[in-house]
Write a structure and sequence with these properties.
With about 375 residues, this protein is mainly α. The protein contains 16 helices and 4 strands. A 4-stranded mixed β-sheet has the order 2-1-3-4. One of its GO terms (cellular component) is plasma membrane.
Length: about 375
């Protein structure tokens, strides 16, 4: 009972100064919304690449490109604009009316027949990803044309005589080797969910620090000796601070899950599995922040160190960007943070998986909680002795 009263007292103080509300709710929700708005989700059809083409009507090769490539593009992802001259296309790229332009020179048919030729791609530094996509499309087409040329040349060398018939037969021959998408995308977080979860777990460490730093604040304010003089077991004081931190953490996470699901369409996954990850994640955050708090002499010092550690762990754990896009060593180092395990657990729940999918990540998070919690409890015992 004393532990609950202490926790309620700390919660009232934190809610009164609005700091817990700001860091636990307003900041993460605001950043999640901003990130989800400025970074499009291709899988959800939120990204459309404005692609331009020049010269496809003036050459046979351009006509093949139109029928075999342009007509097969997913129109939910690509918007294609045809320009009459390269100059007009360049102006459109400069104005960002289109993000890249694929140009077929007027003499490309003769150049290819003579064994040369080139497809030009106009790009801009303002849209590097779109430029790479356009280059990839052009290179793939050029590779296909080179493959036809090689096949015809080989057939001619073997005794063939009808070049046009050989080329037609080569183009019509079905592929013997295909690349198959194994549909692993369903087990990864979409953009909205990733940033909602990333910001939630990042600011979770700032939220729980209000509770675990309360013991140092009590000592600084001179109220700790009064608590110890009262008929209250020292363990109840420690438990009260921990309960306050746990309540703040779970409440902020729960509100963020509901708010981001409603505001930006975040898909967190199975409620039971998410609940497991949230509880384990809050416990691990409390343990880490508590250990840091016991190393400081003042509440201000503890807050400063905790903030630095929270930022480092958040960056390393992939709260702001998927660590899989970085060097391999970064992916391995990220597993030393609760953030990475929390996000991994949510990824395992993506696509409709049940609670069992979140068990490995939950166990890892609880491992952080137990290891750091034991250390923090032992150090706090010495702090609450008269």
């Amino acid at each position: 009972m004393p532990a609950i009263l202490i926790a309620l007292k700390d919660l009232r103080l934190r809610l009164r100064d609005k700091s817990a509300v700001t860091l636990g709710l307003i900041a993460p929700l605001g950043l999640a919304i901003i990130f989800s708005l400025i970074i499009p989700d291709v899988s959800a059809g939120e990204f459309t690449m404005e692609l331009g083409v020049v010269g496809i009507e003036q050459s046979d090769l351009g006509g093949v490109f139109e029928s075999e490539v342009i007509d097969d593009l997913d129109r939910s992802l690509f918007a294609v604009t045809e320009f009459d001259t390269e100059g007009n296309a360049q102006k459109a790229v400069d104005r960002l009316d289109v993000f890249a332009v694929i140009v077929f020179p007027p003499d490309i048919d003769a150049a290819v027949a003579a064994g040369g030729g080139e497809i030009q791609v106009i790009t801009t530094n303002e849209a590097p990803i779109s430029g790479e996509i356009a280059l990839s499309i052009a290179r793939q087409f050029a590779g296909d044309v080179s493959g036809v040329q090689l096949s015809v040349a080989t057939a001619l060398f073997a005794g063939g005589t009808d070049v046009e018939a050989l080329a037609t037969r080569t183009v019509a021959t079905p592929l013997r080797l295909e690349v198959v998408d194994l549909e692993t995308g369903d087990r990864q977080l979409d953009i909205s969910t990733f940033f909602a979860a990333g910001m939630a777990v990042f600011f979770l460490f700032f939220t729980v620090q209000f509770g675990v730093s309360g013991l140092i604040q009590e000592r600084t304010d001179g109220t700790l000796p009064r608590l110890l003089a009262a008929p209250i077991h020292p363990a109840s004081i420690i438990a009260g601070k921990g309960l306050a931190a746990f309540a703040l953490g779970v409440t902020s996470m729960a509100v963020l899950i509901i708010a981001t699901s409603w505001q930006i369409g975040a898909r967190w996954g199975n409620p039971v599995g998410v609940g497991m990850l949230v509880v384990a994640g809050v416990a691990s955050a409390i343990g880490i922040m508590a250990v840091i708090a016991t190393l400081a002499r003042t509440a201000e010092q503890a807050s400063n160190i905790q903030s630095v550690v929270a930022v480092v762990l958040g960056l390393l754990g992939g709260s702001f960007f998927p660590v899989s896009q970085g060097p391999a060593i970064l992916s391995k180092l990220s597993l030393a943070t609760p953030h990475a395990w929390f996000l991994r657990g949510l990824g395992d729940l993506a696509g409709g998986a049940g609670p069992a999918a979140a068990v490995p990540s939950t166990i890892a998070l609880l491992g952080f909680a137990v290891a750091t919690g034991v250390v923090a409890a032992l150090r706090m015992r010495s702090m609450v002795r008269l």
